[in-house]
Fold these 2 entries.
Entry 1:
Amino acid sequence: MAAPNLYLAPMLRTTTLAAAAALCATMHAAPPVPPPPPPDIATLGSTTASDDATAKRQLTESGVPADRRREAAAYLAKAKGTSTPAAVLGAIEETNGSCGGARDLGELLETLAAETAADAALMDRMAALAKDTTKPTSLRIPAHRALAAVPADKRPDAAKTLATRTIALKTIPGAMKYDVVEIRAKPGELLRITLDNNDTMQHNVLVVQPGKLAEVGVAADKMGESAEGKARQFVPDLPSVLEVMGLVDPGKSASVFFLVPDKEATYPYVCTYPGHWRMMNGKIKVSK
Ligand SMILES: [Cu+2]
């Protein structure tokens, strides 16, 4: 079998996953806006297939193309004698689900349903993780997504009821509004909220803690006054920000996942492009 084409420079081999995780530990727990890819990833083409650290980096850095990420996962799985989805879940756990490539890892894990279904021990581990309310949602959501992608009759009993429900949002063009402003949800549901940006300006979707709409909106407006705010895509670094969709260009779409908490409450969602929050928001009403 051909060796995967791992394309990071040899000089970068010393950058370990632990170092990446340490960097993440300095960031806020809410999912950050993915940083741009490191310049070396886009420009270098060396083959360092025997280097585990390089493969780990390729798996977890932002900006790595999906097929390269998948190759790196397969390489690490082979090196560790484990399944590919187990290697991906391991990388998510090591980085606490909050590093550059975290969103892509969740996506990748969801596409590996056939291999996940063949690994009973992994599915048990995922089921426990998905339901463990002491763990951050950055770990629970990928586990939930991965299991929900496996046909229910192939899942362990504890995971049979897991599902992902899609809520499709659009904008009302020119009005700075979402077309859906109220979503009803049950505790424990995983919502995939998609935004189809059919407008002529950028928008995003943040899910925030109950009662914190104005706090987040005002902070986002302030970010509109600085270059740093723009670089952070107008996502305030506040504990009241629960989940983040990056800015979506006109004509594009994106998604954000929200694992509905057990607490019966109303969770606002909002666009934090400066000036939008007062008009462009909605409510997720959680009741049993
Ligand atoms: Cu907006």
Note: Strands lie at 164-172, 177-178, 182-185, 190-196, 203-208, 241-248, 253-259, 266-270, 281-286.
Entry 2:
Amino acid sequence: MLLKGLLILLGAHYCYADLSNIIRPCKLNHYKCIGENLAANSYCKVKENGFLPSKYVQESFHYDTPYFNASYIDHNLIIRNQDKCYVSDFFVNTRTGRAVFCMDCPNLDFESDRTMIQHRTCQEDSYYEYHFRGVYPMIRITINLPSATHMDLCSASIFTDVSELPKLHINPKNKPTANYLSKDFSHLYIYERENGHARGPGLAYKFIDSLICDYGCPMPK
Ligand SMILES: *[C@@H]1O[C@H](CO)[C@@H](O)[C@H](O)[C@H]1NC(C)=O
């Protein structure tokens, strides 16, 4: 009986100690405070009165979806609603020495003239063209900074969770594309994970550089 009580106590103590290693230095909507913390541990320039437009255009963006043996190029990519992203966590773990920055983006909206490139072993690539628009109810981006004392965004690990599948509008630009494009969306969640993996870093850099602290990391193209 005594032993059991002791174990529970030890367990409780451990749990408590673990929680107290987590430090949140800033209110999550206090971007200046977060920027100052990042700047104190890296080379970024704190953004005062930062601005991110509700809509902007990126000339092109190339990404691969290895599972599908395909590559894509978005031309004239219009990104809407990135100004609605917000910081959903920022903490340091004093025990592990790590720092984590998390952002949530509701209703991100992408529109582009898209080229899909289908690869096949020892064959020429096939090209397909369509107009694309997709609205993503929720995309969550988790950034593990290299360490609590070295918060360099450009070498951070960035994980993108497409936590709700998008609503898609796809208009093929020609007959072969219309014939080729799959009407089977049962693997959409795999495609969107690969797609999100490619887009996450650019979205994170744009958001943090514009609103919190400017790192000037090279944008993926
Ligand atoms: C990708 O290519 C490999 C090798 O040709 C093939 O086995 C696989 O089925 C392809 N993947 C898809 C999703 O079509």
Note: The chain has four helices and ten strands.
